[in-house]
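WARN retry 2 of 3 for item q-0093 after timeout on previous attempt; input resubmitted unchanged.
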Amino acid sequence: VATAMLTGKTILVTGGAGFIGTHLVERLAAHNKVVVLDNLHRDALTETGLLEGQNVRLMRGDVMDYASVRDATRGASTIRRMIIRSSVPSDREQWLDLRVALWPRHDRAAHRAEIEFLIDRPQTLGLTRFDVLVCIVDESNIVGFLEMSTRPQVDICGSGSAGYVEGIYVAPACRRHGAGCALVSAAAALAIATGCRQLASDGKAENALGIAFHRGVGFAVAGYRGGEVLFCKPLDGNA
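OK item q-0093 returned
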């Protein structure tokens, strides 16, 4: 959904008080009224200060409760639900579509072969593991992905294993709604769970938007290699 289409609307975000949902609410609230329906099992929204403004309203409730959903949807012009999760086999074709868009120099068959190799045999490349996270909106539409390898060591991050963002992509029409930030946040949490304390990445030196995105989600420039900028993001238990 393009940013221009989400201006001046009243939007219901379910699960919007969680860490990932909060990033989505923050983006949407810049130009819209946002109603958050959440059971507050995890509450990352309150500490942001968004509830102190006029554009965000929190309703405590559960999506399984009819009355809560009925009350929350009154006046809503748009209902959005964004989920970040690990990829499953049924995601393969949509993931491939986005992968081809990110790296168009290779055809679909080449991407398919590389995916199968990375998933089945990451150790042959010196990787500890290889994970793929996908961003889903409206239950079934995959609009973004992040590929992360776990490496025994990444020079720019010092000693110890580190997660490495091999690629991240969000469909153009869905950018600036928090999906990229949510994908990185989920990758950081996964990296911590697998024993990493650093998250690394890289990007083309001429890609100013890519560099700005990395900095915006907590990466710092750690060095340069040829025409690439190298990034490192320290992790802790709260990432």
